[in-house]
Amino acid sequence: MTSMIDSAPAGDDAVRTKTVRWHDPSATAERSRGLSGRDFLTQWMRGDVPGAPMGELMGFRLVHVADGEVAFACTPDESVYNPIGMVHGGLACTVLDSAAGCAVHSMLPAGVGYSSIEIKVSFLRPIQAFDGDIVARGWVVKPGKRVSFAEADLRDAHGTVLATASSSCLITPLRD
Q1: How far, in whole angstroms, is CA 95 from its chain's centroid?
Q2: Is 39 part of any domain?
């Protein structure tokens, strides 16, 4: 899975392109069935199994896995800008949702999955492309058998909080 951007010099009105490649997500899901959430996420982080196509599309990568805690890093580029010249809130929301959800996933046994059922995001500061990595860290606040609760924050390279999220995840057996 790779993403490539052909960029033009600043101020150039030329059209830019982005090519996105990904692996079949059903094959990755099938490989994950026999693994605990933490084991699966660890293999993903190491590159032993392909990651989520959404992460490839939006350019974020898993960089930390522990029980009840994960982190994703992303270096935004102008392909995720909104029309007023800053990173679209959808990128922040997506990486925060992934961090909170995967924190929950890190605590699940083999054969069990999750689905986000609610997320609340607070956008605190604008995000600019090419300012270095932003890191979303997610952690479980309250695990549960049917619903788990997690939080996440998104910080820039200086540790400044850019956005926060709280999330609820439905715990469910994985389908065959």
Answers
A1: 4
A2: yes
* Per-residue pLDDT tens over the stretch 120-153: 999 999 999 888 899 999 999 999 999 999 999 9
In a domain, 5, yes or no: no
On whether residue 3 sits in a domain, the answer given is no
| Cα–Cα distance for residue pair 134/159, rounded to 1 Å | 9
pLDDT tens-digit readout, 23-36: 888 888 888 889 99
Is residue 13 in some structural domain?
no
Helix axes 37-46, 89-105, angle to 10 degrees: 130
50-80 in b/e burial notation, b at 16+ Cβ within 10 A? bbbbebbbbbbbbeebeebbbbbbbebbbbb
Nearest residue to 114 (alpha-carbon basis) of 61, 53, 48, 167: 167
Domain that holds residue 101: 18-173
Number of folded domains that form the chain: 1
DSSP 8-state symbol, 78: G
Q: The domain spanning residue 29 has which CATH number?
A: 3.10.129.10
